[in-house]
Amino acid sequence: MYKKFEMELAGRTLRVDVGRVAKQANGAVLMHYGDTVVLSTATASDKPREGIDFFPLSVEYNEKLYAVGKIPGGFNKREGKASENAVLTCRVIDRPMRPLFPKDYRNDVTLENLVLSVEQDCSPELTAMLGSAIATAISDIPFDGPTASTQVGLVDGELVFNPTAEQKEKSDLALTVASTREKVIMIEAGANEVPEAKMLEAIFAAHEVNQKVIAFIDQIVAECGKPKHDYVSFAVPEELFEAIQKIVTPEEMEVAVFTDDKQTREENIRKITEKLEEAFADNEEWLAKLGEAVYQYQKKVVRKMILKDHKRPDGRAIEEIRPLAAEIDLIPRVHGSAMFTRGQTQICTITTLAPLSEAQKVDGLDESETSKRYMHHYNFPSYSVGETRPSRGPGRREIGHGALAERALVPVLPSEEEFPYAIRTVSETFESNGSTSQASVCASSMSLMAAGVPIKSAVAGISCGLVTGATDDDYLVLTDIQGLEDFFGDMDFKVAGTHKGITAIQMDIKIHGLTRPIIEEAIARTRKARVYILDEVMAKTIAEPRAQVGKYAPKIIQMNIDPAKIGEVVGQRGKTINAIIEKTGVKIDITDEGSVSICGVDADSMEQARKMIATIVTDFEAGMVLEGDVVSIKEFGAFIEFAPGKEGMVHISKIAKQRIDHVEDVLSIGDHVKVVCLGKDKMGRLSFSIKDVAE
Questions:
Q1: CATH 2.70.180.10 is right for the domain spanning 555-616
Q2: Structure confidence at residue 368 as a pLDDT band (50, 70, 90)
Q3: Do residues 8 and 34 touch, judged by C-beta distance below 8 A?
Q4: CA angle at residue 241 from 240 to 244, to 5 degrees?
Q5: 63-77, 191-205, 214-228, 412-426: segment of lowest average pLDDT
Q6: What DSSP element (H or E) covers 217?
Q7: Torsion over CA of 386, 389, 393 and 397, rounded to 10 degrees?
Q8: Is there a contact between 5 and 216 (Cβ–Cβ < 8 Å)?
Q9: Is 80 exceeded by the pLDDT of residue 694?
Q10: Does the structure show a pLDDT above 80 at 367?
Q11: How far apart are CA 300 and CA 244, in angstroms?
Q12: Has residue 683 got a pLDDT over 80?
């Protein structure tokens, strides 16, 4: 039965249609936010997937260019693989919802979002987040929701909820907060060095808005929600746990995991697992669940060690950061390089500079962003964790980590006018044991400075973890979590920023949300650790950006010309500008405003190109002296080319002091000569002289 629900959300109407389309999905809603329309569905398999030890949740966000009245570019007029924005949207939908499904649920679940129409002032990403939450909440899929999400901007010091396209352009903050009824469950932010206090204010202001949306969703569920279906539980039997503890005591397990070396710990666990496999060799049912049981046993022991005994697996204090190291210029010939090491996490970032013409073109639903001048890419090869698997290109995690580091560094980059380069940083993970994304922020910041990019301030990142007990006030926040504390803990709270404030946040949790005291403590901890890394490690490696770009980096000369003369520089079908490029070997970019960037490695060639362009756009006046080559000889005189496509004529009488009968007696094609402008002749054409140059 078709039902329609409406509420006002940040000054625009949010409408939810239930029972109108996609009725064969377990749950489906047609979301309208302004003129943005997204179909969100939630579908589950009838039976659990065999042979897995995780919840198989898939989230899709399908961008269709018809939603903004475009036909896809390229030869194949069909949408291709998911864009980076689509991947990041899938992750931001997944993160607040995954913790709310039962941990022992093994049925496949797919949350699909199809973007049908986009109004730029009404975010399709936010609409899809709300749609997935509502579709799942009204379905029969077990889910401890709902969740609600709000975007927050900061315009002229004031918080703005679900900002319009114009407000986003001026905003110092791009924050997304997801909440349950009581707690914050997901935070994603990019910020222009926003102070911690302002960030906290924004987070909990969004949380208040989310409560109104949850009340709206509750109304929909009350009228349209299906009873949740029963499912086969894959929880580890309690008798298996009891049997394991008789063979491997908690004290033995604590000794096995209590080490700062990942390989040693894994070897200890491997031996314990082999011992248990021998003990349960006759019980196939227990053997099938042994891997999950050992994981849960480790988790229980580690959490007890941390929460009750305040002991971390590697022996560190609760607020202690692992050993840190940094260096620059370890890779020759690249434009900039830096390596940052934190314990067994090691990232090397390489910076490449190029003319602005090499900025990445973006073909998506956001019409305000058509190109990206700064690109950060993150790679996570299997050897970094001591494993072997074929490389299939970046997955969603790599794309997400790359975008997080990119977001952290964009606020400190110089403007195009200050530094007219396209910039690419690539973070290679050499070793991983916790929070490589934040190590890549540190390495990238130093790499940019080593490359001579005049960033406004160094940026550092660090991650905090969490272990919770039975009550909201029974918890412990951990500074700089390593892999084990991430796997067995409840939170990965990543914060990057400068001395001045925060530039990026990403919060992943495995529980049903965080209270305000936990978030406040995590943000305070990350600031303290960030300042330490900036001052004691990064600043001692490279204190400020180098004054010049490196030897192997392209150099750029900028000049401005009258926009009306761009056509003269470009020439018919690009003939003139291509001739300059061929002659000098440089790259030339010209904007519609008349800003010209000349890019090359050889200074003399760049200056030659600059002079050619300056000559082309010059309004010649009497008395101006120029140089050029003889390109054509006629009976009445010679034609001199001063720059590609720019010629002038010297009459035979103006070639030499003495009278000559033939131009060829003095000049040959290819001769390089100096001339002086004499003004315009009777027909309004400019004429030049060779013999009058000295005068």
A1: no
A2: low
A3: no
A4: 85
A5: 63-77
A6: helix 196-224
A7: -50
A8: yes
A9: no
A10: no
A11: 13
A12: no
Contact 27, 136 (CB under 8 A): yes
In sequence order, the β-bridge partners of residue 680 are 686
- Per DSSP, 551 falls in state T
695 — pLDDT class (breaks 50, 70, 90): low
Which two tokens mark 243? Answer: 């049997």
Convert the pLDDT of each residue in 564-610 to its tens digit.
989 888 988 888 899 899 989 999 988 888 888 899 888 889 999 99
pLDDT at 366: 79
DSSP secondary structure string, 501-530? -EEEEEEEESSS-B-HHHHHHHHHHHHHHH
- Kindly report the backbone phi and psi dihedral angles of residue 682, in degrees, each rounded to the nearest multiple of 5, phi listed first: -60, -25
**Greater model confidence, 141 or 576:** 141
Q: Answer yes or no: are the C-beta atoms of 502 and 519 closer than 8 Å.
A: no
Task: Name 672's bridge partners.
Answer: 629
Structure tokens at 411: 């606020």
Contact between residue 336 and residue 448 where contact means Cβ atoms under 8 Å apart: yes
Residues 690 and 626: their CA atoms lie apart, in Å, by 10
Is it true that 324-468+515-541 and 625-689 share their CATH fold? Answer: no
The domain ranges of the chain are 3-148+208-224, 238-307, 324-468+515-541, 555-616, 625-689
Residue with tokens 């990238």: 444
The type of residue at 172 is: D
372-to-361, 369, 424, 496, 655 alpha-carbon distances in Å = 6, 8, 10, 21, 53
692 is in an annotated binding site: no
- How far is 93 from 366, CA to CA, in rounded Å? 18
- Residue 11 tokens read as 């000054």
Question: Is 3-148+208-224 a domain of CATH 3.40.50.2300?
Answer: no
Contacts of 465-473 with C-beta under 8 Å, sequence gap 24+, read 465/489, 465/490, 465/491, 465/492, 465/493, 466/490, 466/491, 466/493, 466/509, 466/514, 466/518, 466/522, 467/303, 467/306, 467/307, 468/307, 468/511, 469/307, 472/515, 473/517
Nearest to 596 by CA among 552, 549, 563: 563
**pLDDT tens digits, residue range 465-502?**
999 998 888 999 999 998 888 888 999 999 999 999 99
Residue 85's pLDDT band (boundaries 50, 70, 90)? very high
| Contact between residue 301 and residue 257 where contact means Cβ atoms under 8 Å apart | yes
Torsion angle, alpha carbons of 162, 164, 169, 170, to 10: -70
Which fold would CATH assign to domain 625-689?
A: OB fold (Dihydrolipoamide Acetyltransferase, E2P) (2.40.50)
* Predicted local confidence at residue 572, as pLDDT: 86
Per-residue model confidence (pLDDT) at position 127: 98
- Answer yes or no: is 492 a known binding residue: yes
- E strand or H helix at 670, and its extent? none
In 10 A of CB 536, how many CB atoms? 11
- Per CATH, the homologous superfamily of domain 324-468+515-541 is GHMP Kinase, N-terminal domain (3.30.230.70)
pLDDT digits (tens, 9 = 90+) for 635-652: 888 888 888 877 888 888
Nearest Cα neighbor of 317 from 306, 325, 308 is 306
The pair of three-digit structure tokens given for residue 61, joined into one six-digit string: 């966000």
CA atoms within 13 A on the CB side of 29: 30
- The distance from CA 118 to its chain's CA centroid, rounded to whole angstroms, is 22
Each residue's pLDDT tens digit, 240-265: 888 888 898 988 888 888 887 888 88
Give the DSSP per-residue string, 612-625: HHHHHT----TT-E
In this structure, the dihedral spanned by the alpha carbons of residues 264, 266, 270 and 276, taken in order and rounded to 10 degrees, is: 110
pTM of the predicted structure, to 2 decimals: 0.88
Burial of 485 (0-12, 13-18, 19+ CB in 10 A): buried
685 φ/ψ angles, rounded to the nearest 5 degrees:
-95, 150
